[in-house]
Amino acid sequence: MSKFHFVFTGHPEIYPLVLTTKTQEIFNCRIDEDFTDEQSYKFIKKDDILADLLNRAAVSDFHPVKKIVREYPGEELVLVYDKDFKYGLNFYLIGTEEGKENFLKSLEETEEPEELKEHIPEDVYVYKPPMSKPWVSLGSEKEIEEESVKESKRRVTYMISRKRSKFGAPVTFRDHNASSVKDVYIECASYVDKNFVLTQVEKDMGLQVIPEVTDISTQTKCVEIALQQNEIMNTFIDDWKNLAEEESTFGDKSDTHLKEYQSFTDLHSTMEKMVTCVAWHPTIYGLIVVSVAVRLSYEERVQFSGKLLLQPSLILFWSFSDPIHPQLMLESPDDIFCFEFCPSDPNIIAGGCINGQVVLWDITSHADRIENIKAGSSRSKKATLKINRMGCVFENRSGINCQLVTCSADCTICFWDIRPQKPGSGATTTTNTTTTEENSQPPPTPGAEKKKEETIEIPFDVPSTFLHLDLSWKPQSRIRLSKGETSLDHCPTKLSLGEDPLLCRMQGTSSMHVLLKEKVLSQIRALKTAEINPYHNLEAGLANILKPIDDFSTKFFVGTETGPLLQTCCAPKRYTAGHWSLTRPGVFYIGREDGYVDIWDLLEKTHEPAQSQNICITMITYIKPWTFSSKQQFIAIADYYGTLHILEIPWTLSRPSFNEVSSVNYYFEREVKHLDYVQQRKLIREEEKREIALELAKKKAKVYHMTKEQIEAELKLEYDGYLELEKSVLFSLGLSKVPEKVSYLDML
After folding, report:
1. Which CA distances in Å does 618 have to 250, 292, 503, 597?
2. Do 266 and 410 fall within a single domain?
3. Is the per-residue pLDDT at 444 higher than 80?
4. Among 192, 220, 664, 711, whose CB has the most other CB atoms within 10 angstroms?
5. How far is residue 546's CA from residue 507's CA, in Å, rounded to a whole number?
6. Residues spanned by the domain of 716
7. Quick one: the chain helix, strand, coil %, rounded to 5?
């Protein structure tokens, strides 16, 4: 991981630094403990920094300023805590004695004597005359010297000489014909010299105030059309505002590239791993989570399976404030290839392993470590629906997401529920995809389940949130994607659930709704106060009151390789990842195996990318954008070597125009109509081919059954028609005056 080293032009003695938690503990400069709002700086001995550089070498956070520290003349340097990130990082070091004195002097001048504050009433204004201060150099003279115009090239000297005898000699002029006398006329034509090309900055022009007058006449029909067009136009549209918005969005090409913001790499991993999935934390700024997997094929995994068991499979939490050390690491039984945060509680994470297992994590106990967030305090979305094992939809009044959907390579889509099933309610009944032997087993008694749960040993670092699911968790419902009459199946690779708010109807009166809602909320508060798992008794006592929603559609769509709406030419490199823009409906990003990202803008070009930008030297494995605010957007791009690149999206690629949504909708609707037209024409062409084939078959059958006289008569008619055409052509060309009649019988 490369460290940051910035030198500002206005303050050449200030060097920003990133100090990790370990470095803060070594030098006793911990944030909120050693550094406070009252004490924002500290003196650090030069020998201590040199000793740290000797011990930790390039790993030391002072390695970027190693040369500055060694050349520092004093014994102590000033380290300042940059709370507001004025210079870009969390600390900065003052590298000169002069800068150190200026910094300390500025702190003394800002402090007002306490004695004056005691004798001055608060409501009395006291005039303080301005005081002259000595000049303090902050490096501005260096800026002036750099901006001053100086000669950068050496002047060229020419020496012209002539013979002394020619000085003062008489000169005689006479006329010559330039065309007849050789070397008399020499043309000095102008040419463009690239070394002296000047850009025109200002130009004076004169214009007449009176416009040109033209006479135009038109027919009544055109005037009527023009009047009708004028009537249907909105006269209250501000054309200047729309023009400026369009030009600023699409016309400005100076800031259209993704800017490198930060990058993360796990330096402690002994195996070569790649990033398989990326997710931004829903509530914490600058916290991004990635899953990594070993870069091996299926055959190589089987070959090195014993070695892979000794290596942990991890999910890493990275923060903008510490680009070197992960904030949190989650272990899993095998490599994770996809994971997702719970929408109602970001402390719950669900992931899918390469071996087919589904894993749940509860990081509530570690929430304070990443951003001082308590359990359940960061509910971002409210769950409104839930389903049962029969596929019926119910209303979720608790507002807690307790179900998830997975898809796998065995052509199935499974629905899971993280709540414990009630005894005797079919909790142990398997789905219809299991064998008959499993269905024939009797359900265990509640006492046996309790005894089994008591015998499970819980490791000290594993929470007991989902202990009730261990060794007994099964899908609530399972759907197999079959192709119909054939035996071939479809393999799902990705799920996409809509996030639009759903309207649910409540059975009963409004007063009952309020009472039930208050009852549920009070139960959840009581469970949290008593530190009881809320998933154990979720909606207890309300199962008999909830009724299914009859008018809710439970259909979902499965996409296969159908006719595309947009198809480009064959790319030189394979596409490996992609994602739509979160704010612009006409922009999407496509990652390639050569490390480039193609940025498509459908409002600008539809046959090729608007631009391509190189991100890394290897294959891009995942793309995930994130919107922090209307003025700042980021995009996370992961590569095959396990590096996560964070780039800032420019304003032109994040802010949509006022009619971009309608324009993109119109484009897709037009392409859908075109696709339907192509499909219809394809059917029509196939029908025409069948008709032509039928006609040919009929003709062959007709020829086969005709007699010799009928065949000769048909040939005679065809030949007579040919002769008539030949005579008419010859007559039109003037080669024949009187058409002669020749029949087929004469030829015979």
Report:
1. 31, 16, 46, 12
2. yes
3. no
4. 664
5. 8
6. 663-732
7. 30, 20, 50
